[in-house]
Amino acid sequence: MRLERFYKRAVEVGIANDLRDEEEIRRILDDEQEKFKDLKEDDKRFYDPDRLFNHFADSRVLFGDLDASVKKIMIGIDIEVGEILLAHLLNKEKDARVDLILSHHPMGLAAAQLYDVMKLQAKLLAKYGVTISVAEQLMEKRIGEIERRLMPVNHAREVDVARILGIPLMCLHTPADNCVTNCLTKLFEKEKPAKLKDLLKLLKAIPEYERAAKLQVPAKIVSGAESNSCGKIYVDMTGGTEGSKDIFDKIAAGGVSTLVGMHFTEEHLANAKKANLNVVVAGHISSDVLGLNLLLDEIEKEEKLEFVSVGGFERIRR
Q: Which candidate among 79, 130, 256, 312 keeps its CA 20 to 30 Å from the CA of 156?
């Protein structure tokens, strides 16, 4: 599979699993086209052209020839300089050669633009009964915080090493997070767990969460008790990073009783408890592994690929 096809197919899968409707995504892309047309020629030098077809700003090919053939991929939830050097060592062995390094968590210009995908969260909150104006204003504040937090980060470290060693490098973040969010949302809608203990049982039956439990990082109730009723469940696993810490009372007012997420800061959790919400931490790395596996399952319908799993990842096919 050509690198360009792998990349664009991943974006397609991310869109197919987006909880926003196709019309809204098309509108986002159309607005981007208009924005690009209105730019002065000098400003176009600084524009990220991938935004014209890929609105997931945290997912990019960071280095590599798009015409390159991809058969074996080194893949990790996190890829750092050590993993890139490992790929370089493997590439000295004829039978172990790696064609592409794939990270889930963003780096390079994709990390610099992480805040941009957080706009997705406001639309999801609106689906769960939060007034859209409230959701957008609270998220706007949080997006600004994350943008400023990312500004001083040295984004290019890993990309520089991959470039020097000549190994293609990319990251896929929100497309994979959309897959796990969509998967669990549909699972809970279908199975309708009555109690939190029933919800945990559903999670533990999923291979990625079962694996995490064996590694002593199981899904866990951090607010509420096993006997608590689930009520309406909101799966909070996409949109870049955690949203506003001030949104939880609005979520509860919208009729949600249970939050299922990858992780929550102590401040976010304290506010969720004040809103009397049940909170289940499904697991960060385990949820990321599930999302990537679901994404790769769809890509591999076109062509079977080989994987070298590092950085917390394990390829589990369905």
A: 312
The model's pTM: 0.95
21 pLDDT exceeds 90?
no
Q: Which domain holds residue 280?
A: 179-284
CA dihedral 150→151→157→160, nearest 10 degrees, is 120
167 in the same domain as 101: yes
**Are the C-beta atoms of residues 237 and 294 closer than 8 Å to each other?**
no
Q: What is the CATH number of the domain that holds 266?
A: 3.40.1390
List CB contacts of 217: < 8 A, sequence separation 6 or more.
283, 285, 286
Q: Tell me which residue of 255, 204, 261, 250 sits closest to 231, measured CA to CA.
A: 255
Q: How many domains, in total, are found in the chain?
A: 2
pLDDT (0 to 100) of residue 239? 85
Helix-then-strand count for the chain, H and E: 14, 9
278 within a domain of the structure (yes/no): yes
In a domain, residue 232? The reply is yes
Q: 139: Cβ–Cβ under 8 A, 6 or more apart, which residues?
A: 118, 119, 121, 122, 125, 243, 244, 247
